């Protein structure tokens, strides 16, 4: 399962505490690169048993940072813009958080009342993985329409 939390919400803090207690015996620490919604993270670090890291953090071929800014030679894992997909049907639409995979960059989804979301329109060569609360679904990216220029990167 994938868990994300906003440190503003009591329920996610409680659930994270339960998760942390369940894995306390494992030799794997939980470390966090805090974002702009986590300004108070230092208040909860000891309670939740997490280590706060100063960004950027290099982890093998990855660079972990808050802002989704590419870095030459590394694959950046970032958050901040909280990507969502808007799926439109005949009678209704659905807005789902998603992972947005681009060349050298993966933008992670966020969940919670305080995070909002930025609707993305993936382009050919990119991938979008929507989350419905239970599963992750890859959403097909349509080919670029003929005659329309590619968006600026």
Describe the overall structure.
By secondary structure, the chain is of the alpha/beta class. Helices cover 14% and strands 31% of the residues. The protein has helices spanning 10-22, 41-48, and strands spanning 30-33, 50-53, 57-59, 62-64, 75-78, 83-88, 93-102, 105-107, 118-119, 127-131, 136-139. Strands 3, 4, 5, 6, 7, 8, 9, 10 and 11 form a 9-stranded mixed β-sheet that branches. Strands 1-2 form a two-stranded parallel sheet. The longest helix has 13 residues, at 10-22. The chain is globular. The chain starts with 9 loop residues before the first helix and ends in a 14-residue tail after the last strand.
Compact summary:
This protein is of the alpha/beta class and 153 residues long. Helices cover 14% and strands 31% of the residues.
Question: How do the helices and strands line up, and which of them pair or pack?
Answer:
Layout: H1 10-22, E1 30-33, H2 41-48, E2 50-53, E3 57-59, E4 62-64, E5 75-78, E6 83-88, E7 93-102, E8 105-107, E9 118-119, E10 127-131, E11 136-139
Parallel strand pairs: 1-2, 4-5, 5-8, 6-9
Antiparallel strand pairs: 3-4, 6-7, 7-8, 7-10, 10-11
Tell me the distance between the termini: 32 Å
Count of DSSP strands: 11
Radius of gyration: 17 Å
Major sheet characteristics: 9 strands, mixed
For this structure, the quaternary state is single chain
Please write the string of helix (H) and strand (E) elements.
Answer: HEHEEEEEEEEEE
Structural class: alpha/beta
The level of helicity is: 10-25%
């Amino acid at each position: 399962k994938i868990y994300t939390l906003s440190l503003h919400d009591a329920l996610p803090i409680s659930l994270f505490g339960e998760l942390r207690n369940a894995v306390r015996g494992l030799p794997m620490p939980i470390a966090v690169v805090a974002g702009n919604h986590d300004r108070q993270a230092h208040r909860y670090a000891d309670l939740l048993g997490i280590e706060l890291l100063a960004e950027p953090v290099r982890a093998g071929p990855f660079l972990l940072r808050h802002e989704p800014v590419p870095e030459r030679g590394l694959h950046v894992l970032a958050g901040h813009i909280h990507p969502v997909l808007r799926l439109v049907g005949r009678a209704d639409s659905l807005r789902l958080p998603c992972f947005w995979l681009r060349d050298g960059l993966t933008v992670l989804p966020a969940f919670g009342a305080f995070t909002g979301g930025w609707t993305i329109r993936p382009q050919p060569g990119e991938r979008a993985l929507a989350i419905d609360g239970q599963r992750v679904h890859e959403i097909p990216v349509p080919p670029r329409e003929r005659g329309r220029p590619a968006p600026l990167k």
